[in-house]
Specification:
27% strand, 13 strands, disordered N terminus, seven-stranded mixed beta sheet, alpha/beta, four-stranded antiparallel beta sheet, single chain
């Protein structure tokens, strides 16, 4: 079902320049990274918590609408007849980890700085990261606020650290951010909760590309509109095709 493994295109060292850096390893970021890497791109996939890679908004994959040919559809078929969300997550993470050309990094991106031919990513720790293009797939974590009853945390839906610094950096670049929210109803073992977060305003995007930045794109729930599993994965496939068709700058090194 999956293509045979091949040797990685590079062994990243400090100062390494990736073809694409994907910020956020949810459904959109994982699918995009997988498609780009399988097409021969050198991809950095950054997540604040690798243990949450590809986590769903529901406890299992029963009835989940994943488009045919997507990584998630293939993983769902692999674990069938099991539908448990944790089993699905573990298998999905394993497939991302074994995909040649993807470098997984647990970190928190705080700033994006465009230079000729590349984008530099700053984080809370480690050296500056470099990529030809950056895709923000940060879901509900741009200044995410988690509300449970009367308690509010500065966090996204999984109690991960919110991307406050990145949201502030985007605003400093002149981008207009607006607010969105999502709710989850209680189960027997968990209370109701709400997540409020920022998204890019509609006028800030030209398709997937961020208008005020040359080589920065946005995908998934950090963009305007109603999003479903199917729409997010379809968008990831479309953006992968766009980048592979000539949306990536050549290195000037």
């Amino acid at each position: 079902m999956f293509k045979p493994l091949s040797s990685p295109r590079s062994q990243p060292q400090p100062g390494h320049r990736y073809d694409v850096a994907v910020v956020g390893a949810g459904l959109a970021g994982s699918e995009l990274s997988w498609r780009l890497a399988r097409a021969g791109q050198d991809v950095l996939l950054v997540s604040q918590a690798l243990d949450h890679l590809g986590n769903l908004y529901q406890p299992d994959v029963a009835g989940a609408d994943f488009p045919a040919g997507s990584l998630l559809a293939q993983v769902k078929q692999q674990i069938a007849p099991d539908t448990d969300g944790w089993v699905f997550h573990c298998r999905l993470k394993a497939e991302i980890e074994r995909t040649a050309g993807i470098h997984l990094l647990q970190s928190c991106v705080t700033e994006l700085n465009e230079l000729p031919g590349e984008v530099q990513l700053s984080s809370w720790e480690g050296p500056t990261l470099r990529a030809g293009a950056v895709v923000m797939a940060v879901g509900a974590f741009l200044k995410g606020r988690l509300l449970i009853g009367e308690t509010m945390e500065e966090a996204g839906r999984l109690s991960e650290v919110a991307y406050d610094f990145l949201a502030d950096d985007l605003s400093a670049h002149g981008l207009y951010l607006t607010y969105a929210s999502g709710q989850a109803h209680s189960r027997a073992d968990a209370p109701d909760y709400e997540v409020r977060f920022q998204i890019l305003a509609p006028g800030e995007l030209d398709g997937f590309r961020v208008r005020r930045m040359d080589n920065v794109y946005a995908l998934g729930r950090c963009t305007p509109g109603d999003h479903t599993y199917a729409s997010v994965l379809t968008d990831a496939a479309s953006l992968a095709a766009e980048l592979l068709a000539g949306g990536l700058p050549e290195s000037e090194a």
